[in-house]
Structure of histidine kinase:
Amino acid sequence: MSRFKNVINFFKSLKFRLILFLILFGIVPGIVLKVGIVKTYEDRSVSIKTSEILSQAKILANQIVSNDYLNYPNSTIINAELDQLSNIYDGRVMVIDNEFHIIKDTYDLDTNKTIISKEVIESYYGQEIKKYDAENRYIELTVPLSRPVEQTGATEVLGVMLVSVSTDSINLNMEYLARNAYVIQLICAVAAVFLAVILSIQLVKPFHKMSKSIDEIKTGYGEDALSVNDYTETIEICKKFNEMLGRMKVLDDSRQEFVSNVSHELKTPLTSMKVLADSLNSMEDAPIELYKEFMGDIGNEIDRETKIINDLLSLVKMDKSAADLNVTNMNINELLEQILKRLNPIAEKQNVELVLESFRPVSADVDEVKITLAFTNLIENAIKYNKPGGWVHVTLNADHQYFYLKVEDSGIGIPEDSLEHIYERFYRVDKSHSREIGGTGLGLAITRNAVLMHRGAIKVFSTEGEGTIFNVRIPLNYIA
Ligand code: ADP
């Protein structure tokens, strides 16, 4: 089975196609040339020989008529001339009178017999007929024996002279030519096959080189980048491959970083719990109040661990393909009102004014759970990273294609160099402050993924110390 596959693979390979192409290119022109040359030689030789014999025959026809040979066929001069023509051209000459009797046959086979053939008859009407029979290898000519009639000026046909000449000599030359051409062709074919195999191996080499380098990169033994500079095409493929490799490395790095961040984040509450538990254990007769206090702290750490795990699970869900969206047509105004209602107690606790402004009723195709999570994160951040006595304005607007959510706050703002990082997982501008207020650094990553899954866009504008604006744009109709 694998042998069969190998054979199929060989036929499909570039190498095989090159070999085939080069062989055809080397052999076909030779065959065409050979056929062409032999054919041209044949046509040309036959035409030269025909016109030569015709002119001789015409001269002789005139003599036959002027010597009145048809009535005196014993004329030694004419007979000698006829024999001479016959000998020179290795052919047969017949003189036929107007009753289709053969009065002279240089082969002496058919003298006094009658001959009726198409060519002879046509010649009686004054035509010269030339015929080449390639199969039987002869040229046949019929020339009318005619003389002008003095009274009328017309010509009178007295008989026909028929000359048939063998073309053996032409055929012999043709065979010789063809044989030589065969030998040359054979040499060319062998050279073409040889060259085709060598050339195709050479031409395909860079691709093998490439495949080998990729294998080496895969196993980690090769260089970090692919470089095969033999052809423009291989340079281009290498460039694309290296770009892809780069992207894969970035992905791999970010995956490793994510795993180490997750471990670190999950370890922190566990370390705190361990410290709290160990210090209680090391104390003899610790007062019940201290137990209660420490147990309260341990409870808080467990809450934090749970929050990190829940956020991670949300993020994993958002990382999946858009096919996991559970889209329904939702009233966005109501959805926002519910979110604000849920967040109001936190805002009040922080002494932050929370306002929702809707310009028009908006309904859109969204995944309720994911979009609620995204909007909650934005508004919660605006409350969390605010100043006492500050405000948060949430604005909803729409056009015929999108709805727009603006979350604006009068909070601490984000430093300019942090703006490009805030969507990264576990990124926090001020780690200790964020931890204090219960942040995990995953909120904006979740929000961004949710918005992108809805084919939307998110933008941030912020001035440190003054406040932050998050603009979100989501299409009203979700197109998968
Ligand atoms: P966290 O759980 O820490 O809030 P996020 O991913 O939601 O994580 O936010 C990442 C960081 O971006 C936050 O730690 C905070 O420093 C900054 N940030 C987010 N929203 C705001 C905002 N409205 N005002 C100021 N800083 C913000």
About this structure: The two ends are 43 Å apart (CA to CA). The pocket of adenosine-5'-diphosphate is lined by residues 377, 381-382, 385, 409, 411-414, 422, 427-430, 434, 439-445, 468 (CB under 6 Å). The chain has a mean pLDDT of 90.
